[in-house]
Specification:
40% of the residues lie in helices and 18% in strands. It is of the alpha/beta class. α2 links the parallel β2 and β3. The structure holds nicotinamide-adenine-dinucleotide (NAD) and uridine-5'-diphosphate-4-deoxy-4-fluoro-alpha-D-galactose (UFG).
């Protein structure tokens, strides 16, 4: 089999670094493009240590069209996995321009360069946040899109742009049509089981799992549980947590699926990557205490604006068309988070 080269944008980040490990282990050549705006190059040093394989790294912003184009000439990738983006919902409400420029314009530049070099296989990091408010708690891919903040809208806009690109090829019928997988992640948590790479948030974490881990290690004094009066079994919010290793394996399955009937003549398809079941905030705390033997100091606080009570994935389509499903358990997610956090109390610093 010919060795394929995958260009990974945002490969130094949390999910991207785990994807690099899985791609290298699956036999791909890996080229990372990352501007390090939310990551540390130490993650890539550790990816190479962990796998015993090397990758190419370019500290470049994907909006820098000339530099990106030079990388395509030199490295000749055949597929792009596109993680580069900003992801903090609150910041996106304060600085929408920053988010649209980075996430939407960045993807436009990337796809222009891809098209110019006839690289037309793309896996895109989308999010369950593209789904609008609905009376359903289980989300299938055919639900309407209706993101409620600039971050979510930036993802929804990129999905539209990518669908339009693939559609244009269906009309023009080129030899090499776009093949695009829009992967809608639910709540990624956990870390590589080695404890060498993991999530290293800048400043105080926004998300539940890194917050709990930092309370457990003593970096933060107390967790606020945002609301205990939701219509759920214990009153706290329910989410579909997915181990980051299961998540990145979904990307490799998507690359392989570009050769199957759903993509062979070109397509752009969305897939949920989730487990299909949720856990409440209190269940996460309890499991963390059980696995680590630590007591998590928490208080009940008011609901966080914009939060929904409960949602989780319908992951059937990914099973049928990508042959992918989660394998790891909540115990694995918690144990691997703690392994990373306790071995790296200051993250990569
Ligand atoms: P992350 O911040 O750890 O990684 C993103 C990486 O992209 C960082 O290394 C950052 O330096 C880089 N980057 C950002 N803008 C760039 C640019 N213009 N040019 C080059 N590099 C750039 O985030 P993550 O959690 O690994 O998320 C990866 C992707 O998955 C993001 O697109 C995010 O929106 C999406 N996503 C994440 C989650 C989640 O909960 N972590 C959920 C759904 C979707
Ligand atoms: N929560 C707390 N306390 C905290 C942090 C979170 O109680 O300090 C609760 C939230 O209210 C929610 C649950 O824990 O019920 C999960 O919250 P997260 O912030 O970890 O995750 P969200 O579901 O809010 O959002 C995440 C990402 C989004 C992404 C979405 C996809 O942050 O970017 O998953 O489903 F779009």
């Amino acid at each position: 089999m010919a060795i394929h080269t995958v260009l990974v944008t945002g490969g130094a980040g949390y999910i991207g670094s785990h994807a690099c490990v899985e791609l290298l282990e699956a036999g791909f050549n890996v080229v990372v493009v990352d501007n390090l705006s939310n990551s540390n190059p130490e993650s890539l040093a550790r990816v190479q240590k962990l796998t015993g394989k090397s990758l190419a790294f370019y500290e470049v912003d994907i909006r820098d069209k000339q530099s990106l184009s030079d990388i395509f000439v030199k490295e000749m990738p055949d597929t792009v996995v596109h993680f580069a983006g900003l992801k903090a919902v609150g910041e996106s409400c304060e600085q929408p321009h920053l988010y649209y420029h980075n996430n939407v314009f960045g993807t436009l530049v990337l796809t222009e360069v891809m098209q110019a070099h006839q690289v037309k296989q793309l896996v895109f990091s989308s999010s369950a946040t593209v789904y609008g408010i609905t009376d359903k708690t289980q989300y299938s891919e055919d639900l309407p899109i209706g993101a409620i903040n600039p971050y979510g809208r930036s993802k929804a806009m990129v999905e539209d742009i990518l669908r339009d690109l693939a559609e244009a090829d269906k009309i023009a019928k080129p030899d090499k049509p776009w093949k695009i997988a829009l992967l809608r992640y639910f709540n990624p948590i956990g870390a590589h089981e080695s404890g060498l790479i993991g999530e290293d948030p800048n400043g105080t974490p926004n998300n539940l799992m890194p917050y709990v881990a930092q309370v457990a290690i003593g970096k933060l004094p107390q967790l606020s549980v945002f609301g205990d009066d939701y219509p759920t079994h214990d009153g706290t919010g329910i989410r579909d947590y997915i181990h980051v290793i299961d998540l990145v394996k979904g990307h490799i399955k998507a690359i392989h699926a570009f050769n199957n009937a759903h993509f062979v003549e070109g397509n752009c398809k969305a897939y949920n990557l989730g487990a299909g079941r949720g856990y409440s905030v209190l269940e996460i705390i309890k499991k963390f205490e059980e696995v680590t033997g630590k007591t998590i100091n928490y208080k009940i606080a008011p609901r966080r604006p914009g939060d929904l009570a409960e949602y989780f994935a319908n992951p059937e389509l990914a099973l049928q068309e990508l042959n992918w499903k989660v394998e790891k358990t909540l115990h694995d997610m918690v144990a691997d988070t703690w392994n990373w956090q306790s071995k790296n109390p200051q993250g990569y610093r």
